[in-house]
Amino acid sequence: MATQSVFGGLIYFSFFLASIKVIHCQDYGIPFAVVGDCTGETFYNFAELRCQSCGASQTGSSDGLSCDCASGFKLVSDSGGIDITCEACANNEVTTSDGKNCIPCESGVPNPVTRTCPCNEGEITVEYEEDGSLLDSSQCLPCVATTEPDIEGSECVFCHQSFVDASADCDCPPPYEQSGGICFSSGDLLQTLPSDYNVPFESIGDDSGFASWFFIEYYSAAEALCRLYKNLTACQLLSNQCVMVDYNQDDYGTTCDAYIEIRDGFSSSNAYDIPDWPSNMPWLYYTDDVEQVLTESTIQTSFRTNTSSEQSMLNIFVAEYNATGSFLGLHPAENGKLQLCPDTTEKLNAAYQFGTTYSSSCTIPSRSFWDVYKTAFFDSYIHYVDLNGNEKLYPIPVLVDNYKENGVFVNQMAVQRDWQLTRRFFLVDNVSGKTAVDSPARYVRYASDIEFQITLQSEEGEARNGKIYPPLLKIKYSELSQENDYAGATSARINFKVTYTMDQAGGQRAMSISLGVLSALAALYGLLKSNAWRRRSGLIYIDIKTMFKFVAFTFGLLGNVFFAVIFCYSLYWLLFFKKQDVFNVVLPTRIQESAFIAYVVMAFIFKGFDVLHLFAVQCTTDIFLIDWERSRGRLVQANDSTVSKGNQAPISIWRTYFVANEWNELQATRKSHVGLQLLTTLFLLEVIGLVHLTTTDPVGSVTPDPNAYYGNYDVILRFGVASGIYLIIGIVQWIFFTFVYERFVEDSLQNFVDLCSMANISVFILSANNYGHYIHGRSVHGFSDTNMKEMRAQLKREEENLVGQRGLLPSTDQQTFEVLLQNKFRENYDRILQPLNLTRAEQQRANQAQSNRTGTKVDTSLEAYATMNKFLSAFIDHGMRDIDYIVKDKLLFEKLLDMEFYDPMDKGFVFNDDGHSFDQVIFFGHESTLLLFELLLFCVVDLIFQNYLMAGIVTFIASMFVSKIRGSLGRYNLAKKTLVDERFLI
């Protein structure tokens, strides 16, 4: 039973897992279909988003969203659902035009193919009485003179006046010519399209172009009506055709040539006295100098940051025309009038919030450009109020990226004077690519990139109280082909931007001057530091090492200079851009901020080199632990065969190992906690929301409205906010560590000095050939290798001032010093340490040679250690007449410049310090260098990824890596220099 229960449980469990699998594997994907996919006897069920078959004797409606009765059937019932009822008409009957009745033909014989009643040309079909009752049979009534049937053939409409004038009816007899639905007198159609004229499309892949129905149908009539009669609509139509070919006047510039010829003929009469705007015609081309057009100071609006003010919005208006030239109205550009990307009204209108660098991108199904969008043309204006309080419209120039002159895209050139500014533009053109009026366009052109560029007025680099120059509208057109994009599920990328710029020459010049002056001072100070290093190294002449040191010192100082300048620069933009009331500054554009980005990268490189130099110096520093302990007796029993009874008792090495281990722990110790630094920075930026202060809109808030539009993050502002927060947290950590932690918790450096005193060990450090630091750790009790009872007694006597003070000089407590020694000292030092610098094989040979001479086994490295201990002890105790020193204080300038004004010719110098000078050979004394390096690394990573979290992670990993490498290299160097086994260093 138990087995069956277990087996049954496993079965149920298996079913349970299977059911879970089924649930998790449910496929919710549905086939993609749009209205245009439903043809023939199907309709688009928009509740299920698919094509569905109509019933018998039914066909899809014209809009594709329902079903109609097929030809020869009438509608019996329609309840509003998806089902309708159709009934067949008799063989001699046809369906009425509204589809609701059957009616016989007056002739008695309907068309067997179309199932309609035939009428002669010029006649209309009548099926109902005026009161709506059905006639006994369908009738054909002729239209009277000057009228003709409409497109549906159900109503007589008046002919165009040109036909009436030519023939008193709707005919256009010779020698009259018909074009574009108008009858012209002989000779009026002076211009016709060349027989080989084709509209260019890049998608075709060659220069053959495309025979456009729209141009063939309308060009000649539009040109003639505009030229002869100044017909407003015809002139608009002709201008639209010029815009369709990007204003180009090359091989396919017939329409633009015609416009220019007519415009020049109207030159005696201009709209608003503007030379480029002919009366009764659109304004297409600018002939003035580009720089002059873009620096006009007519617009007097003083734009402000207050969103409740009328002066906080760009009031853009557009005059809209359809493809055939009909005027559709003058509209505000709000609510996405010029934006193809769909979005909320609030976010679409944010594009015109002055000062907000707006950017919108989306992908739109390619088929929408055929099925959804209509072709329309726009002339854009900015609305403003002049000094007299009159409302004005100022035309906005357009820069079409696709414009060509002699095959060259001149509007893509960097030289502004080569540009050709124009006026009219379109968003979608699905007309010029048609082969027939009722066929979909084979090619469609659309505005893939639109940018409004707003420039603040300035005088000698100073902004003029929130006023702007005329905006510039930049447009780039792209193409789609019916063959590749209509049937397939492709999409098109759309970009819409509003950018702001101003003359940045003043700011760039100030930054360049600051960098130049401060860099020169840095190079001068680097020269002084390298000269000080040369003297500390005992060099008489400048050699290659001195030159390298000059480069290293200068790079470190340049890193500081570059950071200081770019930090102040970013802080300026953060404060003045976000806190201004009237617009006097706008953020630099991407191109303008390229210099700032380059300076950030250079600062990081300089500081990285500085850190590498710091590594090289600290990991090659000479360090020796002087043991002052002396033997306190003789052996009463031999320990091994090499030590005989009666020899002096050996001195314990553990004190030296212990001090060396403590020094090893200090090497990578820092004043700040990197993890806490980064965690607090990220908390303030991402959680509190200070990152929102770095957007390109002028009003910053740490609690943004999720429904509102906010600009993208700006590189300069992100650097300023991140650097400011990072520095503030670093300073707070330094203040806490210096004034709280070191005073009331633990002072690591002073504890190490105290440890040296208790261990009777002094530390001698040479960071350069003749320069270094000395920690005087000689015990005031004379010995420290003792038991606990004696140690406690020593501490008790010291507390009661029963012994001397710990300082190097009598009656002083000064234990730490800087040392500057003569060359003779270094020569002896190097000679003693020579065995330690040999390779393992060389040491073995030296040991063997020494053993052969003395007859006993000798370790030259141990002898060198003992000799060095005696040498340094004798030096400290003034035991050598020709190698001596004097103790003195540094001058104020020597402290400030970190150099010495003395040359140690006969005697060395031992300078009193503040108790922490030896921290220069460990990380502890270079907190600012490491903090600045990490800050710049944080900002450079954010510069690349625009992600503070990733920047924090990378910076933390890099900091841990640097500390680990520094600890490992420092441990290796310490073991090598002091002969302490590396295994004892943890």
TrEMBL record:
Highest taxon above the source species: Eukaryota
TM spans (from-to): 510-528, 548-576, 596-625, 674-695, 715-740, 935-962
CC per GO annotation: MKS complex
Signal peptide: 1-25
InterPro entries cross-referenced by the UniProt entry: Meckelin
Keyword line: Membrane, Signal, Transmembrane, Transmembrane helix
GO BP terms: cilium assembly
The protein's name: Meckelin
Species: Holothuria leucospilota (Black long sea cucumber)
